[in-house]
TrEMBL record:
Gene3D superfamilies (UniProt xref): 3.40.47.10
InterPro entries membership: Chalcone/stilbene_synt_C, Chalcone/stilbene_synt_N, Polyketide_synthase_type-III, Thiolase-like
Molecular-function GO term, any one: acyltransferase activity, transferring groups other than amino-acyl groups
Region described as Disordered: 1-49
Pfam families from the UniProt entry: Chal_sti_synt_C (PF02797), Chal_sti_synt_N (PF00195)
Species this chain originates from: Eleusine coracana subsp. coracana
Domain Chalcone/stilbene synthase C-terminal: 276-421
Basic and acidic residues biased stretches: 17-28
Domain Chalcone/stilbene synthase N-terminal residue range list: 48-265
Keyword flag Acyltransferase: yes
Protein name in UniProt: Chalcone synthase
One of the GO BP terms on file: polyketide biosynthetic process
Residues annotated as the enzyme's active site: 200
Similarity annotation: Belongs to the thiolase-like superfamily. Chalcone/stilbene synthases family.
Length: 435
């Protein structure tokens, strides 16, 4: 397997010297054996971190698309704004134009509403029924994503040693990961970890934990699954006094994604896609109020202060990226020479990031496309974006070798993971990048 550090060929490349030293120094701190065969041009001291081997995604069947029972409220909100003449964009806009969401997949449907009319009554206690509905629907959705990832990985499910499951919309004991493990036929010795309520940083948190496991246990094969179903927990009759709820209706959706992480791949069976080079999580003090969700007796309530969030991104994102990427020698390539895997929280979040870093529009094209085609699925969205970035690289012959995964979540938290595309797999065609 090539550990591509490009020496030319058009891709932006950290130069020998400061950047390379930074890379070697950082990676040497990990406990991993080098993945590169000797003579590949890498320093013998160069160590590699956990490698992301395979990923797959799945969305639930399109039970209710954008034309869901939520539509009336959203349309009414547009109409009222139109009458007030508040916003020119709103006058011309449809819901899709406002949020960037054209299609979504939702588990909430009319059958569920008939079965649980209390979901329509904001005063009726409905949280237990909602959580039970999630518990009934989520395992099969998550298992479907994981089964695809395992099939693509090429080794038997029984070879999975660890399961890291992340969700912000399920709460039960034992956690849903147990049911998923059983559906997948995982070993009864698999070590399970559930990461709860990280919201839009759910995937980043799970990847971070998986990377730590892979670094400390080189034979571990970690199945990471992220699943959320905000349509069930967060569905409420629209209330004009609560605009965040209306926006949530137009934006949020359901989905699940899975990846398999491990070190020292057994080629040719395991063909890695990305190397996970470093992770960082920065939480800005005193900003807990900016993005939050509350469990109420009638479901999950979500709240976001968009102006404060935009200001936080503007003031902090570059320093967070520098903190993660400068030691690796990647930051000096320039933000526009990296590939970007960004959680598309909403148009305002991507616009802010683009403006703060002066990113060219195509850098967030994968994020915008996922938002458009799937909505904001909370945690799993980032895996969909990763999948889309890979697809685009293959189709458009993208040549960025170094990249960054970014998500923003409650805290207010900024998570960054530095990625390197493996030349042995789909992201980069090998010969072009070989040294
Ligand atoms: C909704 C929008 C697409 C609308 O864009 P427009 O360009 O049409 O208009 P705009 O940005 O000026 O916003 C219009 C009005 O809606 C308000 N507004 C926007 N988003 C809001 C929100 N989430 N809650 C409450 N109000 C909100 C604005 O303050 C403004 O109010 P006024 O008219 O009074 O000035 C965008 O604002 C947006 O992307 N908002 C963020 C969406 C979001 O909440 N995403 C989830 C992120 S959470 C996430 O991803 C991480 C996590 O879960 O932790």
């Amino acid at each position: 397997m090539a550990m591509a550090r490009r020496s030319g060929g058009g891709g932006a490349t950290p130069q020998r010297g400061e950047g390379e030293e930074g890379l070697s120094h950082h990676l040497a701190e990990s406990t991993l054996m080098p993945l590169a065969p000797s003579g590949s041009g890498h320093s013998k001291k160069t160590r590699r971190s956990g490698t992301l081997c395979h990923l797959a995604r799945s969305a639930p069947p399109p039970l209710v698309l954008a034309e869901s029972v939520c539509d009336e409220g959203v349309r009414r909100e547009c109409h009222d704004k139109e009458e007030e003449g508040v916003r020119e964009e709103r006058r011309a806009g449809t819901r899709g134009e406002m949020t960037g969401v054209k299609k979504r997949y939702l588990q909430m449907n009319e059958d569920l509403l008939r079965e649980h009319p209390e979901f329509l009554d904001p005063a009726a206690p409905s949280l237990p029924a909602r959580l039970a509905s999630v518990a009934a629907a989520m395992p099969s959705l998550a298992a479907a994503a994981a089964a695809k990832a395992i099939a693509e990985w090429g080794r038997p499910a029984g070879d999975i040693t660890h399961l890291v499951f992340s969700t912000s919309t399920s709460a039960q004991v034992p956690a849903i990961d147990l049911r998923i493990a059983s559906l997948l036929g995982l070993s009864d010795t698999v070590k399970r970890t559930t990461i709860a309520f990280q919201a839009c940083t759910g995937t980043s948190s799970a990847f971070r934990v998986a990377m730590d496991i892979a670094e400390s246990n080189r034979v571990a094969r970690i199945l990471v699954i992220c699943a959320d179903m905000l349509s069930i927990n967060g569905f409420h009759v629209p209330n004009e006094a609560h605009p965040a709820g209306i926006i949530a209706h137009a934006l949020f959706s359901d989905g699940a994604g899975a990846v398999i992480v491990g070190a020292e791949p057994q080629e040719p069976v395991e063909l890695p896609i990305f190397e996970m080079l470093s992770t960082s999580q920065v939480t800005i003090p005193g900003t807990e109020h900016v993005a939050s969700t509350q469990f109420t007796t009638s479901g999950i309530d979500y709240s976001l202060l968009p102006d404060e969030l935009v200001a936080l991104i503007d003031r902090n994102v570059e320093r967070c990226l520098d903190g993660a990427l400068v030691p690796l020698g990647i930051a000096k390539l320039g933000w526009n020479n990296l590939f970007w895997v960004v959680h598309p929280g909403g148009p305002i979040i991507m616009d802010s990031l683009e403006a703060a870093l002066k990113l060219e529009p195509e850098k967030l094209a994968a994020s915008r496309q996922v938002l458009s085609e799937y909505g904001n699925m909370t945690g799993p969205t980032l895996i969909f974006v990763l999948d889309e970035v890979i697809r685009r690289h293959r189709q458009l012959d993208g040549d960025e070798e170094w990249g960054v995964m970014v998500s923003f979540g409650p805290g207010f938290t900024i998570e960054v993971m530095a990625l390197h595309a493996c030349s042995s797999n789909k992201m980069n065609p090998g010969p072009k990048n070989a040294i």
